[in-house]
Amino acid sequence: MTDDGLKAARDRIDRLDEQLQALIGERAGLAQEIARIKADIDGEAGDCYRPAREAEVLRAVAARNRGPLSDETVVRLMREVMSACLALESPLKVAYLGPEGTYTQAAVYKHFGHSVTAVPLAAIDEIFREVEAGNADYGVVPVENSTEGVVSHTLDQLVGSRLSIVGEVALAVHHHLLSHASDLSEVKRVVSHAQSLAQCRKWLDAKLPSVMREAVASNGEAARMVRDEPAAAAIAGRAASELYELPILCANIEDEPNNTTRFLVLGRQSVPATGEDMTSILVSIHNRPGMLHRLLAPAADAGVDLSRIESRPSRRQAWDYNFFIDLEGHVAEDRVRQVIDRIEAEAAHLKILGSYPRAVL
To answer: Domain Prephenate dehydratase, which positions (predicted)?
Structure first.
């Protein structure tokens, strides 16, 4: 390309940047106008975040993408624009499992964008309490990992909570060994969340077989603990590396390259159907022969996919269990409602935990 051609291309980029900036400003102005209209209708300003609407917009963004940027990239860019526009009224307050630098914080930013006030809390039950009390607009909690299974604390909290599941986030998890040590031979202690230690077990057995492993409440806490210990290392994500200024000694040490964690978004409202939804229910059954089959049969008869079923001790009596079930579809759909009604007729107790949009990418 000649100098004239290079200049022409750069001039065109400058013009496009001006147009993009103007359009983003126009979009922000419309977002403010919508907020004022809603305030007039409702009589007061409120939470302008709508999970169903957000999911529909982001799915449309991915559907019309023609490259060269990936669907994930264009969705992330639009999510940040939407987040900034919503924050013009009042930034959402989102509680998550802290401290800073955890994967749960990364899930918050993936789902809501960076223009929210992310509030780190020490335990999953605290997240539920803060949202229930109205001190946070939403909460984000881990619920399952593709290699290590469910997060039992989250399932147990859902049993008695008044909150609804209003969304989900799927986050690819890449574990890094963070340390000020210059070589693996200097590492005498590895600190991380128990699930992260389990997800890196083979790597640790091969590379650091005799090194002590210590489980702590979160990966962010692990990074904070070892930042001043040259002989210690933490297993955590890139965000923790940047936040605590801990170099990545070894990258991507997870045993499974497709390691993914699913998070739930908790709120106080119900979410309308989008056409690509999930419904989560909690079921207790009578302790009689064949009851589990009778519990699952209605979904099979109606052709409704059960994407997950997990059991947890009910704590009512020995060998009594609660079942957590994810069904594809929304409770507002007749076929899903009919399945739930049939299950409820067989169950000792049924609670709808929420119908919500499936994760966008």
So the answer is: 93-268
Within 8 A by CB and 6+ apart from 96, the residues are: 102, 104, 105, 107, 108, 118, 119, 120, 121, 127, 139, 140, 141
Q: Which helix (H) or strand (E) holds 146?
A: none
* Alpha carbon of residue 264 to chain centroid: 5
For residue 98, name the pLDDT band (cuts at 50, 70, 90): confident
Residue-by-residue DSSP string for 216-249: ES-HHHHHHHHTT-TTEEEEE-HHHHHHTT--EE
Average pLDDT (5-26) is: 95
336: number of Cβ within 10 Å: 22
The rounded mean pLDDT for the chain is: 92
Report residue 97 as tokens.
């499992």
3-class secondary structure, 310:
strand
On whether the CB atoms of residues 221 and 196 are closer than 8 A, the answer is no
Q: How far apart are CA 223 and CA 246, in angstroms?
A: 8
For residues 305-324, one letter each, b for 16 or more C-beta atoms within 10 angstroms of the residue's C-beta and e for the rest, the string is eeeeebebebeeeeeebbbb
Q: What is the per-residue pLDDT across 186-238, written as a single tens digit (0 to 9) for each?
A: 999 999 999 899 999 999 999 999 999 999 988 999 999 999 998 999 999 99
- Residue pair 267/137 in contact by the 8 Å Cβ criterion: yes
Q: Could you please state the CATH topology (level 3) that the domain comprising 3-87 is classified under.
A: Chorismate Mutase Domain, subunit A (1.20.59)
Q: Is 181 left (phi over 0), alpha (psi -120 to 50) or beta?
A: beta
Confidence bin at 46 (pLDDT 50/70/90)? low
Residue ranges covered by each domain of the chain: 3-87, 93-173+260-267, 177-250, 277-357
Domain 93-173+260-267 has CATH 3.40.190.10: yes
pLDDT single digits (tens) 147-176: 888 888 999 999 999 999 999 999 999 999
What is the three-class DSSP state of 9? helix
User: Burial level of 223, CB count in 10 A (0-12/13-18/19+)?
Assistant: buried
Q: Do 210 and 168 meet the contact criterion of CB atoms below 8 Å apart?
A: no
